[in-house]
Every structure is written in C-alpha cells, then in structure tokens.
Design goal:
Four copies of one chain form a homotetramer. The first copy, chain A, has 357 residues and is an alpha+beta fold. The first copy, chain A, has helices spanning 37-47, 107-114, 131-147, 170-175, 186-201, 229-238, 259-262, 333-356; strands spanning 10-15, 21-27, 65-68, 70-71, 74-75, 80-85, 151-159, 162-163, 208-215, 243-248, 266-269, 272-275, 283-284, 287-288, 293-299, 309-313, 318-322. Chain A has a five-stranded antiparallel sheet with strand order 8-7-9-15-10. Chain A has a four-stranded antiparallel sheet with strand order 1-2-6-3, with helices on one face. A two-stranded antiparallel sheet of chain A has the order 4-5.
Chain lengths: 357, 357, 357, 357
C-alpha cells in the first residue's frame, strides 16, 4: 500500500508524475493545530525543482492546495488532504520507455507488476516528484514537533567521496535549512558542488549521504522486535526514491568496534539519565533513549543520465543503446535533505501521539 | 506491536527471556503444507545457544512445541502457534539491573516505557532469545520458499575488520548452512574466530556484518513508496536485536559512484530480462527485479561484556561502576546469521503470497 | 482512521461537508481495468441530492474529478484518487451548532472528541455527503465485480412500517437501480412515498430498512473469528451515517427458530454444493458459502427535523429550544440504497482479490 | 486474520478444538496492571462447558496457563500470552465430517477455503471453544475497565420468543454475572429454561438474543466513517460463532420511528451533557456520547442437532441423511453472554487507550 504503517497518524500518498495531480491524505493528526502556511511553503521550496543549477529544469510551483482537514489553517481533526496540480509536464519525452526500461529505474519491475497499463510517463508513481506530498505532510509534522520542542535537521554528509566533516551543534544544524546547499562546512559544500557540476558536464550523475539528527525526542517510545522505532524509521526512509542504505548511530562502523568501545556509558545530567557518548544514535532495543536520534541515509546516483546506456527493447527482445531524455537532477541528494526530514517527522509524530494520548 | 506488518502472513512473537515460555503465532500461512520437523530443528540448531565456544553457556533445547495450526505436521490453514518452554534460566543474575541499566542494552529505555513492572530478567522481551520464535516461523517459511524454488542464504561477511572476501556461487552459499562458522572462505573464518576468542579473553566483545542473498524471487513484487520491498525487509531486519544498519546491493558504497558506474544495464538471458551486474541488489523502486536480492546487515558488538563499565543507579541517582553478570556471547554475529535468513523468509513469503493469490 | 480495514484494497475518505472538496483514495485496485465513467456517473446520480422531492434541496453536481490512478479511464495500478469540489454550501445555516448540538447528530460527541476546532459546518465529516466518495469507490468496484460475474443489488425493504413484501428474482433486483424509488413492488413504494411526504409535511422524518443481495460471490472467502466476512461487511455498513443495525440471512428472526427450522440443508445443483434454503445468508462461520449473500441494514429517521426540539447551550449550560435549519432529507433511506451497494462492493472486491491473487 | 483490528490493543486467537491447545496473545496492554486470577477464573467459568444441563457434556477445566506477559500476575508491558491445553477431546466423533458437511456449520465453506488439510475435528478453528481464549483476554480487559469505572454487563434478552422484559438498573445488571442463568427476571428465565429443555428433549436446539450495556464509557471515543465505534464493536461481535445480527440502541425498531420520536433530547445533569432518553445507544456518528452503550446480538439456534438432516457426501456427490454426533449445547445463548462481554471489553479497552495515551 502507498500508506505508511502509522498507528496514530496515517499518511497516504497518491499521484503520478504526469497525472492531473499528486497529493496526500494525513489521518489522525490532532485537531486545533495552526498550520503556518508560509513556513510550510518555505519548507516545500527546499525540495522544489528548479531552485539551482543542480536540479531538474522542470519548474513547478509546488504550492499545495488544501482540500480538507483545515478550517482557516487550523486542523479540525478529520483527515487533512492537500494536492499539487501538475502543470509543467512534457509527456512526449517518455514514449520510448514503454518499450525500453531505463537502467536503474523502476520502469522494468513496475511493468512486471502493473502490466502494460502502468503509467510510465515521467516515472509515474515512482517519480521523485511524489516526495512533494510527503513534504507537505512532513512539513506540518515538523511544525507540530517543534511546538513540542522536538527538532529535526538533516544535512548533506557527503557527495561521492567529498564529506562535510564538521559535527556542529544544534544551532548550526538548525541553520542548515536556510542554506541553499545544506552542509555545515561551506568549504566542503563548495567541493561537493564542483563534483556535481563536473558529473553534470559529463552527462553523468553522483550520489551521496544524508545525515539527520533529532533533538528533544522523549525516551521510552518505540518497542521491542517489530515495534522498534529504528525499524519504523528505516521503513519510512527506504520509501524515499533512491535510498540504498540506512544506519543509526555508529551504524556499519559499530560492526568494527569492540563492546567496550561501542557501549555508551550512562551518567546523570541535570537529573536526567543520559549517555556520555551517542554511538547508539538515540535508540536502544528499538526504544528511544532521550539522546539525539542520529542516522545516515545513502542515496544512489540519479539513474537518469545523458550518456548512452545499454538496455533492452521489451517488444523486439533486443539489446538497444539508449539515451534517457527529459530533465533530471545530476544529484538528488540536495533535494533529498528535506525529504529525509519529512519522512522522519511523520513517523516521529506518529510515535509521539502514543505518548501524548 | 510485537507483530510484523505482514499483509498475507502475520507473525506475532511473545515471551520474555525468563517467562514460562517464548513463542509465536503465524497467521495466514497456506494450508496443506507439510512442515519437515527435522529440517526445521536443524535450522533452529544453527541459532541455538551453547553450540560452540563463542556462544553463551546457557543451554536450552530450543525444541518448539506446536500447539495449533498443524495436523500431523501439515498446516491446516488456521494460525500456527509454537512455543519453547524456558528451562535453564538463572534469574538471580539480573536483580541489580532493576536499578542499574546495562550500557548498550534496552534496560533504561524499557524502564522508561514500561515502568517498574518491566521484566528485566535476562533482558526480558529484548533478549536475543526472542529470535528463537522468529526462527521457528522463518524456518517454516524457508521450507515454503524452497518448494517455490526460492533460496535464502546468509553468511558472516565480516567480524570486526576481518572480511570474508570470496563472493561464491549459489551452491557455495547454500553450503554455508552446514558450517559451524558460516563463511565462504574458511581461512577468513579462522581469523574471525581468533578475533572473537581474543575479545572474549579480554572480557570484551566484537561486532560484524551479515550478508544475505535471495535467489529465485520473482520480479514484480513490492511497490512504490511505503509499499517498497526494501523498506519492508529493512523494518524486519531492524527487529533483530543488535542491528545498526541495513543496505541493499551496493548500499552505502553506491553513494560514492557515478550513475554511469552504478546503473545495472539490462540484457536478455534465456528470454528473460536481467541486469548484467547487480549493484541494485534485486530491488528497484521498491519492486523486485528478478535478480538476486542482496543485502548487508550491521550488528554491533554484544553490549554485555565482563569488563567493568560506568552506569547509574536509578534509585540513588549516582554514577556507579558495574560488571555485567550472566552468560553472554562474545559475538552474536554467528548466531545472527539464521536470524537474518528467518526475518527475510517471513517477509518474502508474505510478498510471495500476493503473487500466488 | 477514516480508512477501511481492507487487506488488498484500502479506501480512505476525506473531506467535510463545507470543505473545499470531499474525496477518496483507493489503493490496491488492479491495474488495466477500464472504468466506464458514464456508468459510474449513473451510479453516483442514484445517491446525489436534489433528485426528487424527498431529498435535500442542496444541489451538487457530484461529478468526480479523477486526480490520479487512471490513464484514459484505465487504472494504472497506483492509488486512484478522485474528488468532488463543494460548490453549493451555505455555511451561515450552521453557526448556532457550535454552541447547541443537534439532537441525534454527531455534533456533541464530535465536539468532545475534536474540541472547538471541530468543523461543525454542514455536519463536517459526519455529513451524509461523505457517502459520495464512498460511492465513487464503490461504483468502480461494482463494475469490477460485474466483470467477475458478481452482482450486488439493494432495495428499500421498508419505510417506517410499510414493507416491500415481494422477494423478486435476480433480474427484478438488478432492475431496481433504474427506478427512482428503489423497491420491487411499486405499489408498496407508493405507500412508502406517502409516508415520507406525510412526515415531511409535519416537519418530521422517517427511517427504514435497506436489504441487499449479492449473487455470484465465490465460496471460501472470509475466515474464522476476526477474519469473518460478516464482521467485515458489518463494520463497513456501520460506517454509513444513520445505520443502527445489521443482520445477515434470517438475522434477528433466526433467534426465534429451532435448529431444525433454521439449518439450511445441503444438496447438489449442477455439480455444485448448494443449500436448499438460504436462511444463513451466504455466510457460515465467517466464510462465504457460494449462496447469495443477503443482509438487512436498519436506518434511523433523519435526525434533522424542522420541529422545535430541546437541546443545550454548551456555553451557557442552559436547556434551550432549538430548530434545525438548513436543508435535509425527510428520509435518507432512498439515497442510502446505493451507499449500501457501494460499501459492500468495496469490501467484497477486497476479499475477491485474495482469491484472484 | 484471526486478529482483531485493534489500534492500541491487538488480540490474536489461535487453536482448533482438537489441537494440542487453544490460546491467545494480547499485545499493547498497559504494564503494571495486577490481574486478579481468581476473578478471571470466575469469569471463565461462566463460559465453560459442563456447568449445567444446557451445555455440552464435554468437560474441560478451562484454566488458562499464562506463558508470558505477566510477572507474579502483574502485566510487564510485553505481549500477554495464555493457553488452555485441550484434554477431553474425542476425535473419532468427527471422522464422517470430512466427507459430509454439517448443515449450519462452517464445515463446507472451510473445506472450500482450506482444502482437504482443514482440521474438521470438533469444528476446528470454528468451534465455539475458541471463545475461551477470547474470554481470557476479555476477562483481563473487564478488570481494567472496572478499575477505570467502566462496567460491562450482558444478559439473555430472549430465548426463542421468551423475553426477559425487565429493564433493570446498574446494580441489577451487575448482579447477573452471579446467576447461573443470566436474566434479570428469574421467572422469565424459568420459561426460557423450559424452552431449551423442551428443544433438547426433541433432539433440537433454540436461538436467542443477548443484550449488553456499558456504563461509564467516556464521551468522544470512536470517529466518523470507518473509524466508528459501532462498526468496530459490530465487527468484534460477529467474530463470535453463531451471531446473525447486531443492533445498537433502538436498532431495527428505530427504522419504524419518526425523527421526533427517535431523537434523544439533550439536557444537563450534574454539569454534564446527557440525553433524556437513550434510543441512540450511547453512540452517535460513530462516537461515544457518554450515555450507556446498549446493544443487542442475535444468536442462531445451535446448528448441531440430534435429529437426522439432509446433507451431501462431497466425495460421492450424493445426497445423504445424516445425524450430528458428538456433544453439543441445545442452546449456546447462556454461554454466549460472557463472550459478548469479553468481545466488547477488548474493543472498548483498545479505544480507551486512545484516550489515556
């Protein structure tokens, strides 16, 4: 289902890249919450295409139209629905795709699943464009979490092998959202931009890693086994197109450590149990510990590249050489940063509602 | 909920380490399937404690007692339930834990969630022992998948920094399950064992990575966004205690590649669409491609170590030095290998049932 | 959640009576199905207001605008979303309701649940208008079921104490949908109309019973206990505003029979197991038997009446006399007939997809 | 799935009549709750077979063995699991059923669903015996609700056409549970008993109606459309074997009333909004109003009767005359009374947990 597994809050996303509209329904959100539409739009602008030279030339206003659930921007308790009408789509770019699946895209497996009726135009329901409704829901949840003193911020941790080494404090992290290129160290950012520009110039693309942190999330949420907060967040993060890996805290590096190196020791800080370090990333045994939740998400390079690639013609069953047409980001990572924040915000709000009742 | 999010097949796991029993209920499994109890027991033995010098000294028979759902070892269509009665538990080892949470364990966040009634004995519901009922369900699903020509195998890919470099073919992978120490290259395995033995000698522990492959899974299962097969598998893998990261195909390394390097090119092989390489790991856009599903799971070092560690006394609110008592594996990775297979088997059977109707 | 509990097919309904729009998202519907828009509109017209003298004077076109999931009226496999924009709403009619809850309506309990932010205008999300999106989804499912030789038809079984005694054969039942007043015996229908007109003239309203039958639904769908087909259908029927009771087959009357009178005896008919009578209503032990599914749904009289009624002012905490303003049906039963068909169609399609895989 | 649709509390029931055991897993129950085992056993005894001359001669102790989730009878927060081992089963009674389905039972549709592997012994998973685990879960929930000043009581409203006319106050209702034959008016009860005895003497059976009331349930729980409290309760009640109809408040009779007769007028009572009458049965628009929840459940006559009946031999495809062997209640209604209470208790606890957070 195109619905998350929320217990209290359930997000359904619909639409295809070239359908009349894309949109979302968010059920279970508390009533009486004022949605700051301007702040929401600023958040959506961080994801919107056409902002800078690294993103697709397709320009969409990405302004949500709220159909239900808000009365004068205040939630009334019933499902919130918002849509974005698709305006600037050029469907002729995609006709060949019905026959020749693009390497690295969902074209082929979607064809197997849905058959010839599958809407391949613009990537259909597999388009990165479907993260816009995710960001509408996530943007509302971010405001709700903030009101509850919970802050989520994400940055580009790396593009190809170029890393944003600085760790940064909370205020620096929260400042990231005002940056066009969301890194802590702008010099590292400059190198990453060069790397993207260079790939673009060669008709190629690059991948990268997004790192996110959550401050203020209360201890005691989540649960053992299939009820784990980490599993829940991971499932939501893998729903973002292009994600190939998710790790929490020290993540894969923890596999190289000894227990005595990896364990975070407990201490008291202002009467609260804390850990002196945070290699566990804020979750132990599937339950939040009250320490910042930290995680990293690996994005593959955009599969749509201008270079000719080998594919197959599914009608003639021949191998063909093939160039992806249309407009595509040479690197999706910068625009993925708010998507990671949004995906986390929806799931963490769902969990928080358990606690707030 | 301690239940997976299965659509057709739903697994509920219950029990605590020192409860009367641990067990599982598996709903939605097809009727008329013969469960080979001997093969199932061999699978469970791969996870069972006390098999070698690296696992906890606690000895349990880990023999499931089937309460319902089977008639003469044939599934009758109604929920399958099996339990393992707990016999060899030494609860006195854990009394201190009510006050002093073990670093790296769920003791503290579970205390916040469940309050003083939480069953801390032996790690309660957070014990690795709860993977035994997972393996009962998974072992049955593995037999079902095998009957459908789908094979799952996992190996230790690394212990600390020691890697099992060999890639191996299907028959080598399937032979892993007969090995006491599940690696492809036994020389690499010998180094890993030394590494574990050395950590144990120092009262310490080590982590590692489990790699799994699935052959024969049909293309076209899974779906976009929250319906993704990768997100579903990831959620189930994070349900295994000690997992800190999950990646598919090239995973985090894909973030360093260019699109032209990472894209897998399509070709025809015996009339079927295949990719020439498999960096995508068998899943694109959340849907299976028919190529082997490949993934890696990072396990942290066992948090229970013999070395003294700093923790806090939650009653006196003081910092205390603390030694974990009880019997613990210096490395959980070898016993985690069948758990990864089991977690995958349950989710892939659930997806396959979509296809078989 | 405003979402049904579908396993394969999930329907989410959103909107309030005076929101910008009402709409639905239908996930899991098979791809490649041609939706006959004209037939769908005819179905929606059966529910639409303003058709005859018994329904509210509010006129809406009730023409769905499909936003996603259809490409040239063929389903593409991804969620289907359709909305109806609200045009003819007169919100000033409802201002008093924030303070004075209408007897028999959801105003008071919704106020307790959602607080003062609750959208009380036009009944908000509790308006019978929300059955329009249900009918969009249901209308599509009815076409799908028909293609699978499954037919659903409902009629008015009674208005107040006036009954449509005739039982009717399949062709008569299927002809009901072409009638303005859906009864088998038009003379009984004339008496019912008089009864409604008489109540309307007195500023009052009347209730009634809708009876539905399903032909061609295969045996073996549903399951024991919480998986029962009857429980699933009942839950969906109670989702229709105004429903107070649901019974299957002989229903409440079965409680007065002896086993020897109530049991339906098995026989063979054209090589198929059938029952000679159908007091069980097509479901035994929660599973379909292949006999027609028959059920009856009790609707209360429209709570909105022109007569003055006693209520309370929730601000001054005083008892007040109160007249419901606005436009209301003196009897919702005629318009409820297609809603019952729609609610059944959605659930039965969900179950059928289990079978078709 | 044999699991309810609980949001906070999820009940899974497993077992077949002649399996090794029947049992349940209850997830999401709050931690730290003391389960009074003696009170629980008294509740289970109300449902247990062999209590009086109207119930099956099969004697089972029906004493639950708790496997997990309780530590010294206090819930520890993780799933509660309890089983009842089956001891007194005579499987030879049922061999014929593999070929000849019993009229009025699930034998035939279950055979279609599950195929020849279906466990037909003793009715398998469709046996009324599966209400014992329901009552374990329900009995725990009843204690929890009582601690929250919510009381559920059910009575026999009628057996065949013999009615318990008295309405009764709360204390009389709560006294019902101490009666061997749960009616308010014992003279009416005497007639009902005669009616049952007479049916039994003739090798026949009778049906009846159970009426339930819930006091103290807070206003504002439930929701519109598919989130309705009435739909949720109805789904759970239809999960009890033998139920053919469910109605709330005035129920089917409301369909004969005018709006001015059926609407319950609001008033203030001790500062709280109440209705002067309760024809709505405590739920409006799917949400609780704070008035007692009242409902009636129709049970069909036990399908197992001693009289010869016509059925079919599914192997020879011939019509056969057939006598149901084994031990069966001439009327299931008396034992169904605690089952109705249990089914309601589980669902209402689930809803209450929304409110308590």
């Amino acid at each position: 289902m195109a619905t998350n597994h929320g217990k209290n809050l359930r997000l359904t996303i619909f639409g295809q890249s070239h359908a009349e509209a894309i949109g979302m329904v968010l059920e279970g959100f508390p009533s009486g919450f004022f949605v700051d539409r301007e702040t929401l739009q600023q958040f959506l602008n961080r994801r919107a295409p056409g902002r800078n030279s690294f993103s697709t030339a397709r320009k969409e206003e990405d302004q949500p139209r709220f159909l239900a659930g808000l009365v004068e921007n205040v939630t009334c308790g019933t499902p919130i629905s918002a849509v974005i009408f698709n305006s600037d789509s050029r469907s002729t770019d995609y006709e060949e795709l019905c026959r020749v699946p693009r390497p690295g895209h969902a074209d082929y497996p979607a064809f197997v699943k849905y058959g010839p009726a599958h809407d391949v135009r613009g990537g259909g329901a597999f388009s990165g464009r479907l993260t816009a409704p995710l960001c509408i829901a996530g943007g509302i949840c971010l405001q709700y979490l903030k009101q509850n003193n919970i802050f989520i911020a994400a940055r580009i941790a790396s593009i190809a092998s170029f890393r944003d080494e600085t760790s940064g404090d909370l205020s620096e992290w929260l400042g990231i959202c005002r940056k066009e290129f969301p890194v802590l160290d702008d010099r590292a950012g400059a190198k990453m931009r060069e790397c993207i520009a260079s790939a673009k110039a060669e008709g190629d693309s690059v991948g990268g890693i997004v790192e996110a942190s959550v401050w203020g999330f209360p201890a005691g949420l989540g649960g053992e086994l299939y009820d784990g907060l980490d599993g829940k967040l991971a499932a939501a993060l893998f729903a973002i197109p292009g994600v190939k890996g998710v790790e929490f805290g020290a993540g894969f590096e923890a596999s190289c450590l000894r227990g005595s190196e990896n364990n975070d020791l407990y201490c008291y800080e202002n009467g609260t149990v804390r850990t002196e370090t945070n290699r566990h990333g804020g979750i132990l045994g599937g339950i939040s510990t009250g320490m910042p939740i930290t995680l990293r998400v690996a994005f593959k390079p955009t599969p749509s590249i201008a270079k000719p690639q080998q594919s197959v013609d599914m009608y003639s069953k021949e191998t063909v050489s093939f160039c992806v047409k249309g407009r595509h980001d040479p690197c999706i990572v910068p625009r993925a940063v708010p998507c990671v924040e949004a995906a986390l915000a929806v799931e963490l709000t769902d969990s928080l509602l358990d606690w707030k009742g």
